[in-house]
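Late entry, zinc ion complex.
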Amino acid sequence: MNKAKAILLVADGLGDRPIKSLGDKTPLEAANKPNLDKLAKEGECGLMDPIAPGVRAGSDTSHLAILGYDPYKYYTGRGPFEAAGIGMDVKKGDVAFRCNFSTVDENMVVLDRRAGRITSGTDQLAAAVNGLDLDGIKAIFKESVAHRGALILRGPNLSAEITDTDPHHEGEKVLTCEPLDPNNESAVRTAKAVNEFVRRSYEILKDHPVNKERIAQGLKPANIILPRGAGLGPSIEPFESEYGLKAACVAETGLINGVARYVGMDITEVPGATGGPDSNVLNMGKAVIERLATHDFVLCNVKGADVGGHDDSPQVKLEMIAKLDEMVGYIMSHLPENTYVVLTADHSTPCAVKDHSGDPVPIVFWGEGVRVDKCEHYDERSVTAGGLGRIRGIDVMKILTQLMGVQEKFGA
Ligand code: ZN
Ligand code: ZN
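Prediction complete; structure with ligand written out below:
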């Protein structure tokens, strides 16, 4: 038989709680989803706590855990994942930040944290500050979508134990970046570089032609860059050397692509994959099957259900479940032989909470040799009848790699 392959499907924020308007059912329980149910019926089901019981997981920490990387060890802040997600090469020892282009007045008071939600010209603004030398520390900056960007500081002995510069409120002054511990020399040096970067960004951007043009048009200038969410580039074992599986990622958001890039997965451009409820989810399924021709493992994250949860829209969740069902149907009818399929969520995003909760999510393992159980429906309560019981995100790759026959034995 050919070497086993695997698909790990993660429906972002899919889990929910009973909703009155759905007759006290969760969206998964209320939805018509023949393909998801077929997977459950033919597979081994259970509940999964992405991090640990009751822990409210972020998408990034959860994906790290599901891929077998303990987030308490490897998650050093959001910055490195944002930077990796827009294609920046975050190296060990770098300190990376998420940034906003903002508008300040001459007294450094923030007038608009998002620079009037600027949509064009940030590539030119980014080029103007990229590569600055901050007393021996190199600043690498790249724009992302809209007012966002990411900053990498590269140099010897840097530390992410520093505070943010973004005051998070308009009408307040830009904050001075401070070391969390004044005796930590690396943090003192890094904080100094951040403050210097912010100061220089204002010097350079305030008179930049893009901003002169914006002011002439009555728009707010993107005249400063405010870094936040500092994180140290960790030394992380690439996925391929960890498991011996060449891996690709099919995802819609920079955050998930960032996690995937971080562990060395190949990223995939999918036409029509928007990250919103309007996304072409079927195209993502097609991309998954295409990737399987050249890769052993494909991680796929479909974002829309999470958006429905954040917006308190059971209707959007139901529509996303229908799209997900169509995608799973496509994948299952185009599956190469000896391929395993895992379907789960990275966390619950209950409509009533409008944010991520600590409720566990359903999970199913499907493929050759799984102990098929009595569970017939893929939803939060039905899977409790499944054979997996309740597992954690960090267990998923262990269970999968032993099914695939690619795991080393522990002991004699
Ligand atoms: Zn998520
Ligand atoms: Zn979310």
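The first strand starts at residue 5 and ends at 11. Will revisit in the morning.
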